Amino acid sequence: MLITGFEKISLVNFDSEVSATIFLAGCNFRCPFCHNFEFVIFDEDYLEHYTMEEVISYLKKRRGLLSAVVVSGGEPTINSDLEELLSKIKELGYRIKLDTNGLKGEYVISLLERGLVDYIALDIKNSLDMYPKTAGLKSLDTSGLVKLIEFLKSNDYGYEFRTTLIKNYHTKESIEEMAKLLKGGKKLFLQKFEMSDNVPDRTLEEIKKEDALEFKHILESSIMNVSLRGYD
Question: What fold is seen in the domain 3-229?
């Protein structure tokens, strides 16, 4: 496991929890709009990194001040020692939020069922037909993702869906298909894309607010709570 980022305190990453955020290197997607691309294509000699022992030591000292830990990336579930990290955090009494693309859906379900994760933030890239292109891949088996979506909709675990809107990839048609995929879901955030130096594809464009509101309206027919994030 390569921990390439460690935000020691945040009030915005996990609802009202005072949390720390751990960023793990590596990902099984190559999203052209990724803001954490330095964690995806990483150089261990270039990126700052932390040991698991350093992170756990800090969390031990901050019990009482912090109440939760967010594990993000990259894609955390590709790390074989993720369970060890989660177990150590749980032993300290923290709640855990996992940011994931859901490709390893059955594995994520097992983490929830074993009590190693309390809340899932699941990135929904697009309609299933558009998933490979939006994820930057030639082909993609989305069966694990679909299983995780259905599991979350059918159980009482805390979760949110979130989608970063990109003019180059999201259309009214793809959003209508996405609404079918997420039908019965509790919560979805439609996030505004903003260009930054870390984004690998410099040709991408944001979705205008009026179009984001149209997409929101479409999705509200299928999902209980749909919100815009990053739009004024």
Answer: TIM Barrel (3.20.20)
Amino acid present at 74: G
With b meaning 16 or more CB within 10 Å and e meaning fewer, what string describes 176-194?
Answer: ebbbebbeebeebbbbbbe
Give the pTM: 0.94
Residue 188 phi, psi dihedral angles, 5° rounding: -140, 135
C-alpha span between 75 and 189 (Å, rounded): 19
Whether residue 5 contacts residue 40, with contact meaning beta carbons closer than 8 Å, is answered with no
Per-residue pLDDT tens over the stretch 57-102: 999 999 999 999 999 988 999 999 999 999 999 999 999 999 999 9
Measured distance CA(170)–CA(164) in Å, rounded: 9
Q: How far apart are CA 6 and CA 4, in angstroms?
A: 7
Q: How many residues does the chain have?
A: 232
> Is the distance from CB of 132 to CB of 140 less than 8 angstroms?
yes
Domain range list for the chain: 3-229
Burial class (CB in 10 A: 0-12, 13-18, 19+), 146: middle
